[in-house]
């Protein structure tokens, strides 16, 4: 347990932080080191890392460029940073987060291997009671949850899943010691970002790889390459300007966001721009640096989609495999990038099964049976993604005022004022909660954690007991998120961005798609307009 030298009376700790990823670590630093509060933090992993602690699957790679997939608050930390390629591997990200924890001695505030099972708000004392799977309960005035946007695993409930005699893995719970797949017959279910990375990584080493694909993906080359010391030195020399531009941008990926609509140029010019982006690499570059309207204009979206479709036909040698791999819908999901995905299907030891053509009937003792027969396997890998955004919240017994549960609050879909707060859940701040910005995550995390820290500081200094948003402010924010979403093509496609990957989950707007610059502006301009302090004293029902 952390030392409880509290500033506030009547609680075990001033704040409890849940999670040891980017958001949790930065929160502990801000609240403990800068505000001088007593902080108790928890994580169910054995060390720091958050999502990147668990996602150790083969080929795990960030699709944000290395120099921006980090926190910017400490100049020394930026200058000390090093990386080999222009995109970071999972071990490098984990190593970076360990460096952050080491530098600020953050582990001493953490209790690891500990899962928070319940958080109940005590209305008499205006504090949170936080219970863990160790049977301990502590109290704290503030509760900050950095549970991870993509960390609640989604394992499909296939018939017969328990009968398989081989080995089964979920990519988000990959064994720490690794897995030897050499010479094995492996089946992988799922071809999202994770599935794409795993397929490329393991195809050369397995005896045979059978890919079970539900939805074909638009994916472009990542453009992975080593970065020279000179390049890194130039980046570091310009970091102040780079971060200033990132914070004012839409997607926060350090790219030059296009202002030219694809419909305003000739077909030949479109092809030239797309070809250049394809050769440069980067999923977000292809969608946002080429033209300004790919995500909003159907004609422009079709042009980008057709370009990728043509590339699939050129790359994949077998016409039937190329047909199965070719998407027919909108190019309007989180843009994927890869290090040789389509070319992997030219290997003799890789088979593609379209489960839309031949659905999976059951998992058998020997493998996977679809409507066209049984595939015998030694290993099954589930690359089936996450119950995104709210998945981890609904697994905790969270109760606010009058005992209302988070599940009841979110019965019609998850909500978050500014992606951080809900009415009836006082002094609870979510990092990357529902309706937060859809961008490169570390810069969004910094924006939210800094707002939370400033707000907590204001409350402590002014002896304010509680804060929560008004229902009107939440409704207005949700309407803004919906309005922006409706202006894009993202809302027209089935995607985890809207919860469409989870059977029975309501299709709802989970993100603020207005960009990081506009989100930061909203934080600044809104101030405390949408919140109410000391609600019970103000007689607000």
Descriptive keywords:
24 strands, oxidoreductase, FAD-binding_Monooxygenases, 8-stranded mixed β-sheet, N,N-dimethylaniline monooxygenase activity, 5-stranded parallel β-sheet, 541 residues
Topology:
Layout: E1 13-18, H1 22-34, E2 39-42, H2 51-54, E3 61-65, H3 75-80, E4 87-89, H4 90-103, E5 110-111, E6 116-122, E7 127-132, E8 137-145, E9 167-170, E10 185-189, H5 193-202, E11 208-213, E12 219-221, H6 229-237, H7 239-248, H8 267-280, H9 283-289, H10 298-315, H11 319-325, E13 336-338, H12 341-344, E14 350-354, E15 360-363, E16 367-370, E17 373-376, E18 379-382, E19 397-399, H13 406-409, E20 428-430, E21 436-437, H14 441-461, E22 467-469, H15 471-486, E23 511-512, H16 516-526, E24 531-533
Parallel strand pairs: 1-2, 1-8, 2-5, 6-19, 8-20, 9-18, 10-11, 10-18, 11-14, 12-13, 21-23
Antiparallel strand pairs: 3-4, 6-7, 7-8, 15-16, 16-17, 22-24
Detailed description of the structure:
This protein folds into two domains: 286 residues, FAD/NAD(P)-binding domain; 189 residues, no CATH class. About 2% of the residues have low confidence. Helix 1 packs parallel to helix 14. The two termini are 37 Å apart. The relative contact order is 0.14. The strands form seven sheets. Strands 1, 2, 5, 6, 7, 8, 19 and 20 form an eight-stranded mixed β-sheet that branches. A five-stranded parallel β-sheet has the order 9-18-10-11-14. A three-stranded antiparallel β-sheet has the order 15-16-17, with no helix packed on it. The protein is an alpha/beta fold. One of its GO terms (molecular function) is NADP binding. Keywords: FAD, Flavoprotein, NADP, Oxidoreductase. Pfam families: FMO-like (PF00743). It comes from Bacillus benzoevorans.
